[in-house]
Amino acid sequence: MQISVIGAGQMGNGIAHVFAQSGHGVTLIDVSEAGLDKGLATIAKNLDRQVTKGSLTADQKAETLARVTTSTEIAAGVKNAELVVEAATENVDLKLKIFKDLDLHAPAACILATNTSSISITRIAAVTKRPGQVIGMHFMNPVPVMKLVEVIRGYDTTDAVTKAVADLSASIGKVPVLVNDYAGFVANRILMPMINEAIETLFQGVGGVAEIDTIMKLGMAHPMGPLQLADLVGLDTCLAILRVLHEGLGNPKYAPCPLLVQMVAAGKLGMKSGEGFYAYTAGSKDLIVAPAFRK
Ligand code: CAA
Fold first, then answer.
1. Angle at CA 222, nearest 5°, toward 216 and 224?
2. Does 188 participate in catalysis according to the annotation?
3. 117 lines ligand 1 (CB under 6 A)
4. Contacts of 65 (CB under 8 A, 6+ apart)
5. What is the pLDDT of residue 284?
């Protein structure tokens, strides 16, 4: 299948990686050449991990990379696509603009999927002339590792499109789970209030960063604590999702913690900016609490 992926950031390059590894031709599209180069370098680095572990051969790595081409133009990048997966920044105006463009330039039969973490599929579909072919395909970070694809049906999404996307997800080794289109769907409706509550617990001084994360890791068997997970997802993304939940469901319990709002304003976005609840150094896996939260 020929698949175009919009956005070469942490979700987009992971989505391109898993499709290309399963034999699909992928066009990775981003506004900047620098973004594309960084995305391709990340795919190569993550494929190397698999080669080192023995789950992939060096030849399979080379074949996977050879299946990925790049483009900085939506029109050229989607002209032969059978499926587009949009994984741009979590910003509704940007997504609406991209979907208008996709609808103009992608072939009539092409399915338009979005990896949005929380924005209404129905609203995105409504700016196209093919709402029956618009669907949510929500991958989890890190994409090559996490098994889930949350498949979200918009108001008009057809049965045939839903089945095609679920079957495709299963064929690349993922487990599709079908849900309906309300703010945050299922994954983030449950995950983000937990992350927000962890931040509120820190904000109120009930516990420190390491204490909160250790409690959830050792007490609840979570693979990483909620504050470390917030850093992995990106604090700007967490804030954007909480705002969609707050506005979309109209319940004050989803209001983002003031500490999260302040950290995003300060540019402390987690791993991608080098600092969030923890401080990150390239090449190091050590988990060091960020200076602002050291006792
Ligand atoms: N690409 C490919 N492989 C990767 C990888 C990547 N980016 N990151 C990790 N791996 C592989 C490693 O090679 C390793 O493989 P093996 O077990 O086969 O050796 C395995 O994953 C585990 O990695 P590590 O040993 O380096 O580290 P770990 O055991 O601490 O696991 C983790 C890392 C998989 C990220 C784990 O901590 C985890 O599951 N964390 C929770 C992740 C999570 O909750 N994700 C969902 C976020 S929410 C989201 O994405 C949706 C949203 O809308 C916000």
1. 85
2. yes
3. yes
4. 20, 40, 43, 44, 47
5. 86
